[in-house]
Amino acid sequence: MSSEKERLIGKDQFRDRLATVSETGGRNWIYAKKPSGRFYNARTIVSLLLLGFFFSGPFITINGNPLLLINILERKFVIFGVAFWPQDLHLLVFGMLAFIVFIVVFTAIFGRLFCGWACPQTIFLEMVFRKIEYWIEGDASAQIRLKRAPWNAEKIIKKVSKHGIFYALAFIISNLFLAYIIGKDQLFEIITDPPSEHAGGLAAMIIFSGVFYGVFAFMREQVCHFVCPYGRMQSVMLDNNSINVMYDYVRGEERASVGDRKKVEVGKATLADLGFSENTSFGDCIDCYQCVKVCPMGIDIRNGTQLECVHCTACIDACDDIMDKIDKPRGLIRYSSENIIRGEETKVFTPRVIGYSAILVILLSVFITLLTMRSDLETTILRQRGTLYQTLPNNVYSNIYELKIINKTFDEMEYEIRLLAPEGELVPLGIMETVPPQDLAEGRFLIKLPQNQLTGLQTELTFGVYVNGEQIETVTSGFIGPAN
Ligand code: SF4
Ligand code: SF4
Questions:
Q1: CA-based R_g, the chain, Å
Q2: Does any ligand 2 atom lie closer than 6 A to the CB of residue 333?
Q3: 3-state DSSP call for residue 194?
Q4: 319 lines ligand 1 (CB under 6 A)
Q5: Which domain, by its residues, includes 438?
Q6: Which residue has a Cα nearest atom 4 of ligand 2?
Q7: Residue 157 and residue 83: Cα distance in Å, rounded?
Q8: Which residue has its alpha carbon closest to ligand 1 atom 5?
Q9: Whose CA is nearest to atom 2 of ligand 2?
Q10: Residue 54 predicted with pLDDT over 60
Q11: How confident is the model at residue 48 (pLDDT cuts 50, 70, 90)?
């Protein structure tokens, strides 16, 4: 095989294997060189802001409600201070659909900008855990040396302190995570009460801590490769107009190291000796591998857009630094699109983006309409399970009903239930008249109907729910009576 062919086949090997998987199927641990540069600095500032937001989230309240609460156990959800109940499932579905379509539109235009700048996994891993690792174990080469070193005092101290800090951080993150699920008050109760009173909560804390520790200490980039659905889907959302972290192959190729260039320049080797064809002209890439060494995913961005790339921008900084050193313009690796690099026209509003945006507008319109139409009270009236009708004097029959009424507002509501049709009597059985803010009230009542109002075995009842004398809801239920 000619050396030109060998060289090109060598360049294509990334297609056959993952950088993090060894030939025997084991894990290739990534020792990423510590990044530095303007993008890394900017990402550090953005990460600090987002971390501040994440850590303060459970303690921020809007009208007494947490900013975000995903209480699956009690089926209570608060998003930006607005409480949603299981009865609002349709709203959540539309909200989620709109959010997913928004991500698709955003990705089609800006690629995986979210992964690099705002994803909690990237922020915690690159801006918290890896910084601690660099601080304790040093840069990539020092980490490799430490890995290969025998278990001496220095190695034990470094490894124990690193993993100790990692576990402590994972414990804090799991507590915060739990606060987003059960609320800060319940979390404080779990922490301050005797452990025997909150065995479930403590078990959740220990499990979450273990999961976060495992993710940030060991799994790391494998989460982005194999667990995150967004990363797996990105290839179908991107096209040649999408903005990505890209290597400008038009400017960079043919790549050759400084040493090889020198050899050709001074006549110590010919282009053919180095595996290039005769009319090769070298591009700006000096094949220094700095962009590969800083990559936390272990990939070579020069192979093009890849599933593994989380757009962390570390390779942009590394390459800009090299370009400064060799006196070439920055941006050999930069945010760009395939079309821009090829010198073709690039469009933001492609038919695909317009189509996605139209779907997004429709979903958002439906969501906002449903949200504004959402009634303040949500009432359910059901005949009490397991009961039949009772026969009263004067051909009157009665059924017992259970009432559930949810107050979605931030104010206490006084309500009244009236039977609108057919003509009959509503007798409260300890029924409540007020429902606390963002809460649920339950009660029972009796409906008495004279026989001439019955339409058969099953008669439909219509109730009106009144607040301040104004009917705000109509609810129907069934009444069973004897067959005529
Ligand atoms: S290729 Fe560049 S942007 Fe992508 S993950 Fe690696 S260093 Fe980050
Ligand atoms: S850092 Fe720049 S010059 Fe060096 S190998 Fe990567 S792309 Fe080429």
A1: 32
A2: yes
A3: coil
A4: no
A5: 377-480
A6: 288
A7: 48
A8: 309
A9: 319
A10: yes
A11: very high
**Is there a domain that residue 47 lies in?**
yes
Higher pLDDT, 64 or 434: 434
State whether 132 and 37 are in the same domain: yes
All residues at 6 or more sequence positions from 7 whose CB lies less than 8 Å from its CB, including other chains: 275, 276
Residues 271-285 have pLDDT tens digits of 888 888 888 889 999
How far from the centroid of its chain's Cα atoms is residue 413's Cα? 36
> Which of 332, 334, 341 has most ligand 2 atoms within 8 Å of its beta carbon, as the pocket-test mutant?
332
Backbone phi, then psi, for 302, in 5-degree steps?
A: -70, -10
- For the chain, what percent of residues have pLDDT higher than 90? 51
**Is residue 228 domain-shared with residue 247, that is, in the same domain?**
no
Mode of pairing for the β-strands spanning 458-467 and 416-421: antiparallel
In ligand 1, which atom is closest to the CA atom of 333? 2
Range 297-317 burial, b when 16+ CB lie within 10 A, else e: bbbbbbbebbbbbbbbbbbbb
Q: Is 245 exposed, middle or buried (0-12, 13-18, 19+ CB in 10 A)?
A: buried
User: If you measure from the C-alpha of residue 7 to the centroid of ligand 2, how many angstroms do you get, rounded to a whole number?
Assistant: 17
At which of 297, 315, 342 does a domain end? Answer: 342
Q: Which two tokens stand for residue 429?
A: 């059985």
Nearest atom in ligand 2 to 255's CA: 8
Encoded tokens for 102: 């928004």
Cα of 146 vs centre of ligand 2, distance in Å, is: 27
Least trusted range by pLDDT, from 126-135, 162-171, 315-324, 464-473: 464-473
CA 158, CA 213: separation in Å to the nearest integer? 17
Same domain, 213 and 309: no
Has residue 392 got a pLDDT over 90?
yes
Peptide bond into 254 cis (omega under 30): yes
Residue 94 domain-assigned? Answer: yes
The whole model's pTM is what?
0.79
* Sole residue written with tokens 């889907």: 233
Nearest to 426 by CA among 450, 448, 400, 393: 448
CA-312 nearest atom, ligand 1: 8
Please list, in sequence order, all residues whose beta carbon lies within 8 angstroms of the beta carbon of residue 475, skipping any fewer than 6 positions away. Answer: 379, 380, 381, 462, 463, 464, 465
Q: What is the DSSP letter of 75?
A: T
Q: C-alpha distances in angstroms, 338 versus 240, 342, 430? A: 5, 6, 70
